[in-house]
Specification:
The structure is a single chain. The chain is an alpha/beta fold. Helix content is 49%, strand content 15%. The chain has 9 helices and 7 strands. Strands 2-3-1-4-7 form a 5-stranded parallel sheet, with helices on both faces. A hairpin with a 6-residue loop joins strand 5 and strand 6. Helix 1 crosses helix 9 and helix 2 packs across helix 3. The protein starts with a strand and ends with a helix. 32% of the residues are buried. The mean pLDDT is 93. The structure holds adenosine monophosphate (AMP). The site of adenosine monophosphate has 17 residues, from helix 2 and helix 3.
């Protein structure tokens, strides 16, 4: 089973994807995570994508599609949860050429809620644990519970970059839902402003 999770930044896609992995043993594939890993590797490609990501811009379809194609080849049999991809109609058309999609789930939140959630999101640069200074703070202010590293805010989680990403989301990513509707793929819309477990319960009911 291949599922696409669509939602604005901060909608909880990553959190819900993790829970789906535990329940259905699918592969969670996040293009954002894959690109951040490339950026961290310091490769020439990584340096290029790092600057684009920090500005809150979309990485070119050419680069992202190649990463997706490799992931599909590797994890197709297990089934994949696509998180953060496709983000444009062009990417949706590419994905159709390499994988069959069984369901699209949109997790809905308002822009104000997205900004509120993301601007309080911090993570550990070492173990990648994610914290939220409002809802899931580390035990000691500013320091990771697991390894004592100073937690940091992603460049693209700063407010100006978040606003840019939200406007890209409305302009470029939302139309993808109509694209799948026209192609008769099952679409589920879930209110993402509720507690994580309630959102997950509805998600599981939708997917059956
Ligand atoms: P995310 O973690 O999904 O919010 O992605 C972080 C950043 O990675 C985005 O702001 C883009 O710069 C880049 N990125 C992630 N997925 C894509 C995609 N499907 N197409 C283009 N750029 C992407």
């Amino acid at each position: 089973m291949n599922i696409i999770l669509i939602g604005a930044q901060g909608s909880g896609k990553g959190t819900q994807a993790q829970k789906l992995v535990e329940k259905y043993h699918l592969k969670h594939f996040s293009t954002g995570d894959a690109l951040r890993a490339e950026a961290a590797s310091g490769s020439p490609l990584g340096l290029k994508v790092k600057a684009i990501m920090e500005a809150g811009e979309l990485v070119s379809a050419e680069i992202v599609n190649e990463i997706v194609k490799n992931a599909v080849e590797k994890h197709q049999e297990q089934g994949i949860i696509f998180d953060g991809y496709p983000r444009t109609l062009e990417q949706a058309a590419f994905l159709e050429s390499v994988a069959e999609i069984d369901a699209v789930v949109e997790i809905e939140i308002t822009d104000d809620e997205a900004v509120k959630r993301i601007s309080s999101r911090y993570s550990c640069p070492k173990c990648k644990a994610v914290y939220n200074t409002q809802t899931k703070p580390p035990k000691k202010v500013g320091v990771c519970d697991n390894d004592g590293e100073a937690i940091v805010q992603r460049e693209d989680d700063k407010e100006a970059a978040v606003r840019k990403r939200l406007s890209d989301y409305h302009a470029q990513t939302e139309p993808i839902i109509d694209y799948y509707e026209d192609n008769e793929v099952s679409i589920y819309r879930i209110d993402g402003q509720r507690p994580v477990d309630e959102v997950f319960e509805e998600l599981c009911e939708s997917l059956g």
